[in-house]
Hints:
The chain is mainly alpha-helical and 149 residues long. Helix content is 49%, strand content 8%. The radius of gyration is 17 Å and the shape is globular.
Amino acid sequence: MPALVHLGVLAYPLPADRCVSWIREEAAAYAVAALKRPDLAALKPVFQAGGPQALTGPELAAVMQRVLGRPVSYAAVPLDQFEAGLNASFGAPVGTEVARFYAWMSDPANGTPFDADLTPLRVELPALQKTFEAWTREIPWTQLAGGAP
Length: 149
């Protein structure tokens, strides 16, 4: 958050063109909706889940720019730097394992696992969906980043 708020850089370990359906409160809303549908247990359906939008890094930065009211750019962080930072903050092998996940997610051979087709999920489990921008407007970014830039 400090880099985002103070430097205007949204740094994340994914290629800029990788779409992700960012999921937040929707995960809990889907779980609650599923608990209200005991008939689904017999069907054992598998749904892709995600937020209502699949956004690229630059699209995320554009949202953050509107929310923060200042220029924000996206920077794809090299996985080795991301891994080292997490290991320094949380201890190994946390960063190593998280970096493995992002390496898998970034590999074009794996398709677009986080650009979910939400159509079947929305039919069976209607739940609250909030745009990324609406969600970001609820976060006290400056406070979480340690104060004003």
